[in-house]
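Hi W.,

Here's what went into the run:
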Amino acid sequence: MFSETEQAPPPRLTREWILRSALRLIDDEGAAALTMRRLAAVLHASPMSLYHHVPSREALLDGLSEVMVAELHIDSNQAWPELLANFMRSIRSVARRHPDAFRLVGMRPLTTPGSLPPIESVVGALMDGGIEPRHAVSTFRAAVAYARGYALAEIEGFTLDPQTSPATSPDADQDRPALPHLDQVLRSAATSDQEAIFEFGVAALIDGLHRAVRLGPGPGRGS
Amino acid sequence: MFSETEQAPPPRLTREWILRSALRLIDDEGAAALTMRRLAAVLHASPMSLYHHVPSREALLDGLSEVMVAELHIDSNQAWPELLANFMRSIRSVARRHPDAFRLVGMRPLTTPGSLPPIESVVGALMDGGIEPRHAVSTFRAAVAYARGYALAEIEGFTLDPQTSPATSPDADQDRPALPHLDQVLRSAATSDQEAIFEFGVAALIDGLHRAVRLGPGPGRGS
DNA sequence: TACGGTACTCGTACGTCGTACGATGTCAAC
DNA sequence: GTTGACATCGTACGACGTACGAGTACCGTA
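Here's what came out:
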């Protein structure tokens, strides 16, 4: 059929395809596995071939954030508070779907133009909902900040994780734990789940934002 | 005095000292400069000498987050809403002081026991303020999530940065910009500063949390 | 049919990274 | 003086990102 060195380039190397494969590679084998060589191997190509579609490894990572942004789900047919809440849930959802990639990429700017349309639609909804432009940026940023921060913390494993926290174990012989509040808090937190804690913050933030844009004087300290 | 290969080990190599130097190195020369070799050079030591105090480069990064946590400033003599607000400001402040390090380290778990006391004191303030234990975790996490997320976004440069945003430039010949809402929003946002936008979110979040812990039924969706 | 150019692929090689391994040096206790 | 623990270091290995230039396939034009 084929000579041993030959292989038709059936899924012809493509920026799009490279990015998708990179994401899959990370999902399957962890962040450390994302190497130009490993990635090339997965694609049955030479490492250097990738460089005709992606200028550098750094650019590849930027591209990764692009495809993750594309996975965000935004339903514009909602009042802005619910839309914003769903937007935050969507961010967390993407993070949980691609934890290692989110970590790699969650802390780098979204500079690619492809990431703007989703933002536009969210900000648009805010303004259509009657929020003034200057409040819209603040509101949007607050939502993204909370969602990103929470997702990152969740991925890493919370410091305050009832299951694994060292706060309950070390040197707390029996009574009089070294960190009494944490001890008590973690005991009670063990019964409530991650979902609920995330939603607690979502609700609180949206509630606060709702009141702020309704009566706030400026993007600064109200009152 | 000294043979040319000799050098007295005056600031004897120490985990503490290594971590401090690593942080300084990153602050001065960027994240890419943090190499076992470069770091060793700064310390006038051999790369391998570091490994007697730090098991690996990964562990060194974990240690870095430890020293950054130590820089958090917490004033316990305040009502919890103001304390929490100041805690968030402190997180952002550390991030701005060590942007590259925060980026490197901001997305990895705080698993070292040294990071617990600060948390204990914040959570303690929440509970002393009358917040129920299960609400305390949620409240704490929400605050950290927002502050971390905001600080990260700020470090990277916001996607929605009035100065540099591509939203106002590309293909928007003159009128009818491709992304009308963003265009409008960025124009007006140019007048408000970063400080104010951060504080807007802080105020909104704290306000929302305040109301949630006051009347919320559980850590979940409160009606 | 021939040809020139463009787009893509690849092999080789360089410098740098993290770090395993074992030798060397230093010093306190006996 | 001898011993042993501990800290330091020199060397070396494999893997990394990627610069460079040589191939190879394909296309429009003559």
